[in-house]
Amino acid sequence: MSAPSTVLVAAADPAAAFADTPLWLTLIKILVVFVALILLTLLTTLFERRVIARIQQRIGPNRVGPRGLFQPFADGIKLALKQGIIPRDAQVLVYLLAPAIAATCAFLTFAVIPIGPTVSMFGYQTPLQITDFSVSVLYVFAVVSIGVYGIVLAGWSSGSTYSLLGAMRSGAQVISYEIAMGLSFVAVFLYAGSMSTSQIVEGQASAWYIVLLLPSFVIYAIAMVGETNRAPFDLPEAEGELVAGFMTEYSGLRWAMFFLAEYIAMINVSAIAVTLFLGGWRAPVPISLWAGANEGWWPILWFMLKLLVFLFVFVWLRGSLPRMRYDQFMRLGWRVLIPLGLAWIILVGALRAVRNEYTLDSRTIFMSLGIALVVVALGIVGYDYLRPAPAPEAHEEPPFDPYAGGFPVPPLPGQQYTVTPRAGRVAEPVAVPSGGPATAAADVPMTDEQSEGRADG
Amino acid sequence: MGEVYLPILILLALGAAFAAFSVTAPLLIGPRKYNRALLDSYECGIDPTPQPVGGGRFPVKYYLTAMLFIVFDIEIVFLYPFAVAFDQLRLFGLIEMVLFIVTLLVVYGYVWRRGGLEWDY
Fold it and tell me: CB contact, 8 Å: A340 with chain B?
């Protein structure tokens, strides 16, 4: 047991690249990122409205400023001038704390996202990244988890049924998809040999992980939409069921904090996807043939372009897909994505171990990889769809008594009137629309539909 | 060593200041009109359902989800160092981790068969 621990070698410290950077330069970087995040949020709202409008064959907001560019600013001012209502039933301190937690946590992720290589800034060589350490992706994971507190506390402290149920849904959704998201990272760490974002980008110099680890990326891409509560997984805000979910009781700037947190979360998960799977700030293939593409300030452009692609996909999804049902959604997370993620980790681990132990040409590896992947996918899909449906439980229906509740009710489908001797004729089953009480007797077990409709939340 | 975390604290302070300003600003700006209906919880215009102290009750499925989350989240936290040190651990690490994952898959299978992953039962 002692042998492996002695073999472990500490990887190069990613923090070493920041040794030259003075504090004031870091402060400038922090300020730039902070302002950029807020501006990007504002522009994303406009971008979303315009693109959705185009998808729906409308024009979208184009009156305020050139091409509607100042629309989000106008919206922001309008929100700031609204009355901040605190409902009578709210727990005031927690009620005010919740939007602050949500917004603060949203800003933190970008501290470790590398948006460029080391550049010369005011005579100092410094990476285009606020900070980095050997467990920075773990840090991202932690910060995203703390953001859930904002949601749950908001719903709990509002003193409203809609808020509470929306918060529960949202919390359950975020933590469920966080598992799938965490599993998709494992293969990346395995290939990069590091949890530091800059070293993961470094590891993608030859090939992006989206090519090597496509299943991981697919799992991540699904999980990130679920994690940010965006369509088609925007169940916490299903307005037909829950009004506005956990933010029902918020108004004005306090509501804007949740809105900001949601959009920054969207930018954050896109940035993580770019960093972990799409080569970070590295130029895409045709451009990367030009040697200068990955040097100096150009990488910021590539990074922003990739980010924009993801933001567009978010909007595209919202414009094209209907909302999922909650049980289907949880089923996808717990029963498809998690086993898929675990199987993929074992597969990647086995392949990499084989590659470490023996020397194989890449063609054999990719071929066996493809075959194994198909087998695993077929196994999972097959188990879900080909297994026989469970036989419906046969339980004794008591004979239908139209007068059980004290007044006559029509029979439900499948039930028959009891033939009394006086009627003197055979009663035929009458097709009636469902909806009447099956039998009003209290000892009759509820049917499935009834119990579902009662407890859905 | 600690100075790599300092920028995060600064960003945290900046974000918190921004959030604190936005949350408290409505106390100073904006109209201040109050009436009974405005301060009621929103419930489609009807009198709101009284909320019991402590936030009320919600389906037990959410507790179950939270407990399962802890199980699997800890699993993930164990997987991360294994993944980072994979090339150094070689075959030993792989076998250990497969044993670990299989052990958890037993739990997973149990939960699945008992209906813990079904939302509607």
Answer: no
Report the distance separating Cα B112 and Cα A175, nearest Å: 18
Is A127 in a helix, a strand, or coil?
A: strand
A437: left (phi over 0), alpha (psi -120 to 50) or beta: beta
ipTM entry: 0.86
How far is A354 from A298, CA to CA, in rounded Å? 38
Question: Per the omega criterion (within 30 degrees of 0), is the bond before A429 cis?
Answer: no
Task: Provide the token pair at A82.
Answer: 């609204």
pLDDT in tens, A248-275: 888 888 889 988 998 999 999 999 999 9
Side chain identity at residue A394, one-letter code? A
Instruction: Output DSSP code: residue A19.
Output: T
Which fold, B6-114? Methane Monooxygenase Hydroxylase; Chain G, domain 1 (1.20.58)
Nearest CB partner across the interface for B41, out of A168, A249, A327: A249
Instruction: Report pTM.
Output: 0.77
In angstroms, the separation between the Cα of residue A423 and the nearest Cα of chain B is 42
Among partner residues B68, B69, B91, which is closest to A357 by beta-carbon distance? Answer: B91
Domain coordinates in residue numbering, chain B: 6-114
Q: Are B23 and A253 an interchain contact pair (Cβ–Cβ within 8 Å)?
A: yes
